[in-house]
Write a structure and sequence with these properties.
By secondary structure, this protein is mainly alpha-helical. It is 62% helix and 6% strand. It has 2 domains: 21-383, no CATH class; 389-489.
Length: 491
């Protein structure tokens, strides 16, 4: 590495600037920008209990569609981060930010190997400043590490296919298990992995080479994959196939989750949505830039279709886009995390290729690249006002602890889009005398309302509030938009 830096000082300087920029954009005021709602509170509560009490878990978060459970690997990824941060929820968010920056470095490495220095610089720079990549690269959430594991899968199977480095197969198996446990859309990586595994086997047979090492590493890859997925299998065995039944129900025609009707027109829409969102930071496509990029990308792929790196990137994007085209539910940009690196790799290759053409095209695309970078920095989420969810949540917990006067209290939350796990995390960590309504009804109830002035804690149907019984408000406080109520029983 030292020799490489000595021989490539300018390139190293560019790379250093890109990575420093990426690090700054993700870590700047991360405690203020990170999301910390019910899901994040639930995750840190579970991981805290793993560290403190040794409560091993066999399932991860529940999916928003299909009522299935992911695997627990993301929770175990969080363990060292939460431990080293002394149980501060910022720790796992910093872990995700560092992994995001490492993914940018990995993207640079792959782009340099496949397309050269200029492509590597463009791909990594676009990745570094992308608003979407920044937003999902500074919050602890299970889908956010997906780009890293997806890229590792693709790079690994490429090494097997092109360079006969079969020791990569177990790494691919492990990476696929991690990707699948970050989000079930990781399944869309399997067709590309399977296709290029088959190509590798065909090449061996045609060349009349020994398949011993290939088969041995394939078996090892499958074993590693199954071992990493085994907690979910054990969970299903114990719970009468809950996950499998949910998956079967979701895949059935009655569920309406999948639909062939739009599968012919949706791929272009999804690809333009992905490109416009990742490159322009806007889910409503900037039509001129999007059309130029889509046409240029399609032309570039057709021209370079015999290049092995283009073949595997095309397969990676196509299987993902076609798979999502069958999905008859709203498509959110984090669903496409498994192709983030592919889009930046393709964009880097495209811009560097155009730059080598005639001067007119070169200056058009240099100008377009400059506009994209300038717009990304101008509208970067890193320079907007932080949401301060973490700080506000802790302040609310501190106020409740203070006003409870060291007496036991029940607790409830009124919110259309949140639940109480984030508040519970701080209340439990600070040794508050919180008592759940299902365990015991005490003399005071604290209610946090996130829904503004329309909030009505008295007689609210939320279970933790309703179970407290007839009550009236005796005190109120305000923290930002949060209203906090203290209720006592009506005699």
């Amino acid at each position: 590495m030292i020799n490489w830096i000595k021989n490539n000082k300018l390139e190293f300087a560019f790379l250093f600037v890109v990575l420093a920029l990426a690090l700054f954009l993700r870590l700047f005021k991360i405690d203020g920008f990170m999301t910390f709602l019910g899901d994040e509170g639930r995750d840190v509560r579970i991981v805290r209990d793993i560290i403190r009490d040794g409560n091993l878990v066999f399932i991860g978060p529940q999916t928003s569609v299909g009522n299935m459970y992911l695997g627990p690997l993301y929770y175990y990824m969080m363990v060292p981060a939460l431990f080293l941060s002394n149980f501060d929820p910022v720790g796992p968010a910093v872990m995700v930010a560092l992994l995001s920056v490492f993914t940018i470095l990995f993207t640079w490495f792959v782009a340099r190997r496949w397309f050269g220095k200029e492509a590597a610089f463009v791909a990594s720079l676009l990745f570094a400043v992308s608003s979407v990549a920044i937003i999902y690269g500074r919050t602890s959430w299970n889908p956010n590490p997906m780009p890293f594991f997806a890229l590792l899968c693709i790079w690994g199977i490429y090494q097997v296919w092109q360079h006969k480095k079969y020791f990569w197969l177990p790494i691919v198996g492990a990476s696929a298990a991690f990707a699948l446990q970050m989000h079930y859309l990781g399944l869309l990586l399997l067709p590309t992995i399977g296709l290029f595994w088959l190509f590798s086997l065909i090449n061996l047979i045609r060349g009349k080479h020994s398949t011993k090492s290939f088969v041995k590493n394939t078996v090892l890859a499958i074993l590693i994959f199954l071992i990493l997925m085994s907690p979910l299998v054990l969970f299903d065995i114990k719970h009468s196939g809950m996950n499998f039944s949910a998956l079967k129900a979701m895949l059935s025609a009655k569920s309406g989750v999948f639909n062939l009707a739009d599968s012919l027109t949706k791929p272009f829409t999804l690809f333009s949505f992905t490109q416009s969102t990742l490159l322009t930071g806007n889910e409503k496509p900037k039509i001129v830039i999007t059309i130029i990029l889509c046409l240029a990308s399609a032309s570039f792929v057709l021209i370079k279709r015999k290049k092995s790196s283009i073949q595997i990137i095309t397969s990676w994007i196509l299987f993902t886009i076609i798979g999502l085209s069958l999905y008859n539910q709203p498509i959110y940009i984090h669903y496409l995390g498994l192709v983030y690196p592919a889009v930046f790799l393709l964009s880097g290759a495209l811009f560097s290729s155009i730059a080598k053409m005639n001067p007119v095209f070169r200056w058009i695309f240099i100008t377009l690249l400059a506009i994209i970078i300038a717009n990304a920095l101008r509208t970067s989420p890193s320079f907007k006002n932080p949401n301060n969810q973490l700080k506000r949540t802790e302040q609310a917990a501190d106020l409740i602890i203070q006003e409870s006067k060291d007496h036991e209290f029940n607790f409830g939350l009124i919110s259309k889009n949140n639940y109480d796990e984030s508040y519970r995390y701080f209340l439990e960590n600070k040794k508050a005398k919180l008592v759940r309504g299902e365990d015991k009804i005490v003399d005071q109830l604290f209610v946090i309302c996130e829904d503004g002035e329309k909030c009505q804690p008295e007689g609210n149907p939320d279970w933790q509030i309703a179970v407290f019984g007839p009550s009236h408000v005796v005190s109120t406080w305000q923290i930002d938009y949060l209203k906090i109520y203290k209720l006592e029983h009506t005699r």
